[in-house]
Amino acid sequence: MRIDVMTGSVEFQRLPKTVVPRHYALYLHPDLVGLTFTGHVICDLEVKSQCSTIVCNSAELEVTDVTVTDANGVTQRPTVELSAELETLTCRLQQPLAPGAAQMRLKFAAPLTDKMRGLYRCKYTSPCGEERFAAATQFEATDARRCFPCWDEPALKATFDITLVAPRDRVALSNMPVSREEEYPRRPELRVVHFATTPIMSTYIIACVVGEFDHIETTSDNVCIRVYTPLGKGEMGRFALDCAAKILPYYKGYFGSAYPLPKLDLIAIPDFASGAMENWGLVTFRETCILVDPVNTSTARRQFCAQVVGHELAHMWFGNLVTMEWWTHLWLNEGYAEFAMYLSTDYLFPHYKIWMQFVSECYMGALATDSLRTSHPIEVPVSNPSEVDEIFDGISYDKGACVIRMLHEFLGHEAFKRGMNLYLKRHQFGNTFTEDLWAALEESSGRPVRDVMSTWTRQTGYPVVRVSERREGTTRIITASQRRCLADGKPDADDQMWMVPLSFSSSQSPSETIHKVILSERTTEVRLENIGPDDWVKLNPGAVGFYRVQYPPEMLEQFKSAIATKVMPALDRNSLVDDLFALVQAGDSSTVDFLRLARSFVDEDEFTVWSCLLSSLRRLWPLLQHTEMLEPFHAYCRQLLRTIHKRLGWQQREGEGHMTTLLRPMVIAHLVSFNDQPTLAEAERLFRAHQEGTGTLHADLRSAAYRAVLKRGGKAEFDMMLKLYREAEMLEEKNRIAHALGSIPDPELLTSVLEFALSDEVRAQESVFVMISVSANRLGHELTWDFYKRNCQILCDRYKGRLLAQLVKSLTEDFTTEERALEVEQFFVEHPHPGAERSILQSLETIRLNAAWLQRDRQALSEYLAQCQ
Ligand SMILES: [Zn+2]
């Protein structure tokens, strides 16, 4: 392999610790018309040992007027070197500094770019139709240095006095409340806003915003909470405000300490690269992750907003108050916030049954990604800044949350909570390593947390546990052995082992754990007493352990009636399906066997089980999309969904459960994908009625309906959708339309969708998903990859980091031949993508898995699908 994850021509080093910051006085003046910013910073330093150089971070800034003053008040002007490659600023002093206090002053300036990092500009349209700019910040992971020179590492915490210059009529916000305001000298249209001193904190959670916003507010636990929205949309912040007001006291109880700042602002930012960012006291969001409209927001989106607020607010303690020492421990921040988000959502909305959704939302995806050879350990060594961005991935977030959930179950709720409280109290305002959390949990529980957990956080992958059983009277003897679970099914050369918390349930009480043991060797034997001759025994009830289970055929056979009668709990049915499908991918079982088993789910009515089944079927789609099997496969899928679709119908019913409300649009959307003609026709009828004002199309069904209209349509429908896009006020609605455009069955129009994606009409963070939607169309797959190759330079400049990695992965991983793998590989060798290397490697691995899979099962699959029709 010629693409190497560890690129970077200069060896990376962390900043020297001889001089560290204690306090910054930061003055920022963004010019929203000239689109530049200027500022100055006075940084109080502590000199730890005598030195004649000071090194901090700075990137893409013009730095001037640097002076350094020692404790005796002697000021010198050092020689200054800026390294674009290392992103550092080095001051070489004529007179060495003695240990003690010192102060560095400097001025800086830079353009206000549209790159969505550092201090950047966001475009919006004012109510009178004028195009204007706001300024906002996004510093995580390493972009504070693009706004002001600083010690931009999470462990180098300091306090901050921030001052913003803003037009008189604009909102100016930062982490802390305003302490005083004054007129800007000789410029009455401007004002100078001073904010109160922050607690000691890391640079990556500093934030500033200047722009036009409305807000609504409330008080919870003596904290003023505000949600800032675009002008005229204040009420769309109500749902998030209510969630935040309830979550703060909940977390106070759970974490054992009050929210540490006097105010909390949540703000919707027009151009925003990620979902949300946990800046302390000023949490920034993409509009679609915080704005909820009672009529036009879908049920799934509304739930998602509650989850995002829960995730970000957990960071106020976990991440902001106690911070990882280095990016290697990022998972601790993200995995834990993800876990806490489920806790808080469950508290706010018990009827969401969010812990069940955890399995389909989080757990299954993490198992799939982590079975690739190109996955990485949760604790991943990180050096160059370009590598940091790429670990904000499914492993840090989802696998992180899964292993924390497994640990929570292993220790029990009370011991786990006591350990978390101890950890937060012991390390508040400080920095931690992963081991610090294990130490606190070990103290609170008396269990061997460190030994168990390090096998999960320091190794790539997870085990598949193979079981077999034999009987001695009413004793069932289960033999369980572990080996690494790999997507290609081949043995692992590394011979890894995990400390696996095994748990068992049986048909006597399907939702109870009857036995627990830790599998710490390669193989173990477990004796279960009082098991009847017809009873089944299942491992990992509730899908809590982060492992798969492989059963022998006779054990699987015993489950069948429990699946059909739904005696087996939903999450167990769910994990059986998911584990079986993984065996299919690995070549240990056949795709046809899986499709046969899936048919026993026709009467299924649980959202999570369907979610799992359908994601397995979607996984087959790229294999079949360019073969003669596609239509028979669609027919098979339509048949599978017929009963549940009939049961659910098109309209929400009074009193139905939240999960049923989520299941309906999922079923309809899939029937649209599988070209079910009656569904396409009805979806279009509802759409037309909605347009004509003779009926309503529920927000939950709009995505599917827009795709249905476009699938059946041509240029006229395409133009109509574009018109609706232009008229839509809500970003959520715009996105629904934009993501549907890729469904049009016309290569020429698909090309115009790709051009549209890169036009001014689509916000930069959204265009990636529009391109992905074209690629998901059989007719657009090749087109989009060609388009990417032609526009690679523009796209690389536009989307450094996560979005770029997501884009290249989505556009390439559905190929199914070795020739394609070689072509993709060659392209990225010739066009290096720093920060997306791991995603490219994962894509290549997936293409090769697809190729082997298709070759292996093609014949049998083709015969099976032909006789299904
Ligand atoms: Zn987070």
From TrEMBL:
Domain (ERAP1-like C-terminal): residue spans on this chain: 536-848
Location in the cell: Cell membrane; Cytoplasm
Protein name: Aminopeptidase
CDD domains, alphabetized: M1_APN-Q_like
Cofactor: Zn(2+)
Active-site residue list: 312
Keywords: Aminopeptidase, Cytoplasm, Hydrolase, Metal-binding, Metalloprotease, Protease, Zinc
Annotated positions for site Transition state stabilizer: 397
Peptidase M1 membrane alanine aminopeptidase domain span: 239-456
Catalyzed reactions: Release of an N-terminal amino acid, preferentially alanine, from a wide range of peptides, amides and arylamides
The family this protein is said to belong to: Belongs to the peptidase M1 family.
Residue span, Aminopeptidase N-like N-terminal domain: 20-205
Residues engaged in binding Zn(2+): 311, 315, 334
GO cellular component terms, A-Z: cytoplasm; extracellular space; plasma membrane
Comment on bound cofactor: Binds 1 zinc ion per subunit.
Membrane topology of the entry: Lipid-anchor; GPI-anchor
Biological-process GO terms, alphabetical: peptide catabolic process; proteolysis
Presence of keyword Hydrolase: yes
Name of the encoding gene: Npepps_0
EC number, UniProt record: 3.4.11.-
